[in-house]
Amino acid sequence: MTGTPTDHRTDANTPAAQTARLGSAAAAIEIAALSKIYRNKLVAVDDVTLSIAAGTVFGLLGPNGAGKTTTIKMIAGLITPTTGRIQLGGFDVSRQRSQAVRQIGAVLEGSRNVYWPLSAWQNLLYFGRLKGLRSAGIKPRAQQLLTDLGLWGRRHDPVGSYSRGMQQKVAIAAALITDPPIILLDEPTLGLDVEAARTVRDWITHLAREEGKTIVLTTHQLDIAQQLADRIAVIRSGSVIADLPTRELLARYAEDRVEVRVAGSLNGILLPAGVIAEPEHGATRIIVPSTRTSDVYAVLRRLEAGNIAIVSMTQAQPSLEEIFLRLIGDRA
Ligand SMILES: Nc1ncnc2c1ncn2[C@@H]1O[C@H](COP(=O)(O)OP(=O)(O)OP(=O)(O)O)[C@@H](O)[C@H]1O
Question: CA-to-CA distance for 143 and 135, rounded, in angstroms?
């Protein structure tokens, strides 16, 4: 997944390496004009440019075949881009490969990344050595990870005997054994039950918030993306069609209407033209087709005159899933 022991001979502090890092100090991942055309001429990734700040949880979303895995594999140095450039912590993935890949831990195919006949403990020692760590350094780190992930008691059992959630945790622990600043997670909660998905989700939050890791994750579970990601990029047919902080993306799609809920019925009061009122479980939902203060006040004044109690008032906000479907649909 990451470099071989020989890679580690390269000096990360040569003037050239330092110069290469300059200019992108704040960005953990810089992707410029990245494209991948497979041998069958399929353009899987088409001129993608992204800058991911250190400490960000970055959600890479897109429909099947959009190019997410191809992008993540190029970031991990597992697929060579056709054109474009990727820098990890300032190191160029193609020209400073060994230093670049040491910046990352990746969980790309979930539990298939780890060896099922081996125990969790053996897997972590194996991956630690593979990545050039010494045994003396690996053991405390492995113990810490397995304890944090609640696997310490089962550490000597073969991974094949674990539940899927536990296997996924071992894969995450293996990716974290070198304590890399950047973590790539392709579908980290795929196929997990509610509890296991929650544990993995909480762990991702912990890594980002408490350990300051930069995390790139792909998922089709948009509620998870909405909960976890600080920033979201939507990719379709290889191109980025949206790239915004999650809050801004949601705000941008906040609708131009205000919903007012009142207790009971409207007792026959008349609302301004265009305002819709519909009964809802013993209450009434009023939709004001505008967010202009004067339009909203016009409704509120009539409710006040009618002595009608307001229960809530919100600007209509579609979920990330609705926004995603609209974005995908817009470009279809
Ligand atoms: N090795 C390959 N050779 C040829 N085409 C490929 C190869 N790998 C992927 N593709 C194609 O590249 C496109 C992007 O695939 P990719 O796996 O990156 O998409 P994805 O967004 O991760 O999809 P999914 O959500 O289904 O996992 C798809 O059309 C896919 O068929």
Answer: 12
Which residue minimizes the CA distance to atom 31 of ligand 1? 65
| ipTM greater than cut 0.90 | yes
Kindly state the tokens that stand for 179: 């304590």
CA distances from 42 to 123, 238, 263 (A): 36, 10, 57
How remote is the CA of residue 107 from the centroid of ligand 1, in Å? Answer: 17
Residue 57 Cα to ligand 1 midpoint, Å, equals 23
Q: Is 64 in the pocket of ligand 1 (CB under 6 A)?
A: yes
pTM: 0.79
**pLDDT tens per residue across all 332 residues of the chain:** 333 333 333 344 444 444 344 444 469 999 999 999 999 889 999 999 999 999 999 999 999 999 999 999 999 999 999 999 999 999 999 999 999 999 999 988 665 678 889 999 999 999 999 888 888 889 999 999 999 888 999 999 999 999 888 888 899 899 999 999 999 999 988 878 888 888 888 888 989 999 999 999 999 999 889 999 999 999 999 999 999 999 999 988 888 889 999 999 998 899 999 999 999 888 999 999 998 999 999 999 999 999 999 999 998 888 899 899 989 886 44
Cα(61) to ligand 1 centroid in Å equals: 14
Cα distances (angstroms) measured from residue 331 to each of 3, 37, 103, 170, 319: 39, 21, 35, 39, 19
3-state secondary structure 129-172: HHCCCCHHHHHHHHHHHHHHCCCHHHCCCEHHHCCHHHHHHHHH
Instruction: Using DSSP, state whether 192 is helix, strand or coil.
Output: coil
AA letter at 239:
S
d(CA 105, CA 86) in angstroms, rounded, equals 16
Nearest alpha carbon, ligand 1 atom 1: 38
Q: Whose CA is nearest to atom 5 of ligand 1?
A: 38
Q: Is 72 in the pocket of ligand 1 (CB under 6 A)?
A: no
Ligand 1 atom at minimal distance to the Cα of residue 62:
21
